[in-house]
Amino acid sequence: MNNTKTSIVEQLPFGLYVWEMPDGKWVGDDDGNFMNISSAKGDRANIEKLRDAARSYGIFEGKPVFLSGNTRVTDEEYSEQRDRLRQGYIPDRWDLGNMIDEAKNARKH
């Protein structure tokens, strides 16, 4: 029997930190807006800002969780991305991972 391990490979060192409760749910409001901060992975200053924000709302449990490659999106941007997805395009026209892949493919051809 093979003994295989699975690991997560983060593609980008930039993204968002969200506040995750012990039950795995993210802290947010009823409209689906989650407590988050744009950050580089491991940026202690931004992690502390998020921790302070959680405490200001009386939340002393949980931890910051990093989401690699994620960005904040306004309601207007979300609507545009949803339309792009329906048309068969990459939803975020500024998706860095996609831009890197396109550049690699362009060099090959």
Descriptive overview:
This protein has a 3-stranded antiparallel β-sheet. It folds into 2 domains: 12-71; 73-109, no CATH class. It has helices at residues 44-56, 75-86, 96-108; strands at residues 14-20, 36-40, 63-68. The mean pLDDT is 88. With 109 residues, the protein is an alpha+beta fold. The chain is built from 3 helices and 3 strands; from the N terminus they run ββαβαα.
Mind sketching the topology for me?
Blueprint: E1 14-20, E2 36-40, H1 44-56, E3 63-68, H2 75-86, H3 96-108
Radius of gyration: 17 Å
**How would the global form be characterised?**
globular
Mean of the pLDDT scores? 88
Largest sheet: 3 strands, antiparallel
Domain unit count: 2
Number of strands: 3
Q: Low-confidence runs (pLDDT<50, min 5 residues)? A: none
The helix content, as a percent range, equals 25-40%
Terminus-to-terminus distance: 41 Å
Order of helices and strands: EEHEHH
Q: What's the arrangement of strands in the largest beta sheet?
A: 2-1-3
Determine the strand fraction and express it as a percent band: 15-25%
Question: In summary, what is this structure?
Answer:
The protein is α+β, with helices and mostly antiparallel strands. The chain has three helices and three strands, in the order E-E-H-E-H-H. The chain has a three-stranded antiparallel sheet with strand order 2-1-3.
Offer a few descriptive terms.
109 residues; alpha+beta; 3-stranded antiparallel beta sheet; 3 strands
